[in-house]
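Q: What would this chain look like folded?
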Amino acid sequence: MDPQYSGPSRRSRPQSQQPQVPPPLYVRPNADALMEEFDIELEDEDQPPPLYSTVFNAGRVPIQLGSRRAAPVTHEFYIKTGGKASKPWATLRLISQAESSDKAPRFFGGQVSGFVDIMLDNGGPQSVQAVTLILRGKIISTASFQGNYSIQYTFLDEQHVIWAKSSSSSTAPPSARKLEGNHSWPFSFPFPTQTEVRVRGGMQSYPIPQTFLERGTNISVQYEIALKVSHGFLRADSKLPINITYSPDIMPTPMSAIRQIAYRDGIAVPGPEIDFEGWHTISPATISGQLLQRAVEITCVLSLAKPLIYTRGTIIPLHLILGSNDTQALDILSSVKVVQVRLMQTLEYFQDPKNVAGGLEESEVITQAQWWIPQDPSAQSTGKRTLFGELHLPKDMQPSCSFLLLNIEYTVELIPFISPVFDSGQRPDHPVLSCRVKIGTVNAAGPIPKAVTSPPPRIKNALLERRAGELSGSSQLL
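A: My prediction, written as structure tokens:
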């Protein structure tokens, strides 16, 4: 029976007050003008936006059709016999979409391709029975208390035979089927993006999880491609394991046509009152408390840009309306230093695929919203204050994941105001409003969202600092 223990809980640090952000020097768009342009240039909202290849006017942002990755690179890995000066007798040439050939091979799905070179004239083994490539993925759960141990679960294990003596011509004598000299075999096979996992009641298909190597957590997801050369019963197999990384293609659907036009033309993004189809508005909530020794109530209406999937390295646009009959309370609590919205990551993982009832859960604050007050006078009226904001998504953050043994989920949360003159009587980290969102890896077709504010400082976590280096960056799986 697997040992049971209660996992660590990563607590978020206190929310720091955020610097004043100057309002953008944009002009509020006219709804009629936007719709007129919408009718002319994008007659059908379901149609993709046009691709502009000319030089854009100042303030405009380019239109793109999804993310474009760097050209494929070739990595070379060797098996040698003897010292460093010896020549390799086996070479694996692997093509991937890594940034450079000296980085770990990287895959997003698609094809795994390259060449396997066997050079027996360089002093290699004289007996070769088979040449095989193995693609393997594992989840490794570790613990460092009550004795060090780890639990490994292999969810992906594919073998692709490149050459086998038994598959050579059966009519030829055994001596003719012996592998001699130098050989080069091309290979190409799909990198699977789905895998079947045995659960109660049978097999169930899941998208495979991304490579996950985070210091401070008790779980990792690792992939490798291994070249295996089999020599027969009298000699151990030669193995060349290569650690690789995998990231799924998660792409949002296009944003609303009005938002695309605003980004393209460099004008202010309209709020829900104009682009009502471009925003998801959460049901209002009320924050009550004591302000300057008197009771106040503030109604909060938070909206997020649609669709509710956002590419890492971009932003989550926000729109917030605060309402109250107390003008002084509105003036104080609508400050960009007081309003607190954050992006939370929840990591849930399990040690045993046969027992997923008691998972371990860790939560972390990823980033905090940056706010500004629009210049439009109508946004600030009696009993109402309007703010626009952004959550800056780090480029290296983990995308959303839903796997049997690993779930990575994200939630946008509005928490009580933080002000020395206001006391809500609630826990400062207790969310008043929340909305589940998804983090993707590929930009949607159309313009890339353009940030108005600067990213806040990266949030550091004390648990990660204490446990830095505890989890090794990579390990061989074979």
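Residues 1-66, 169-176, 462-478 have pLDDT under 50 and may be disordered.
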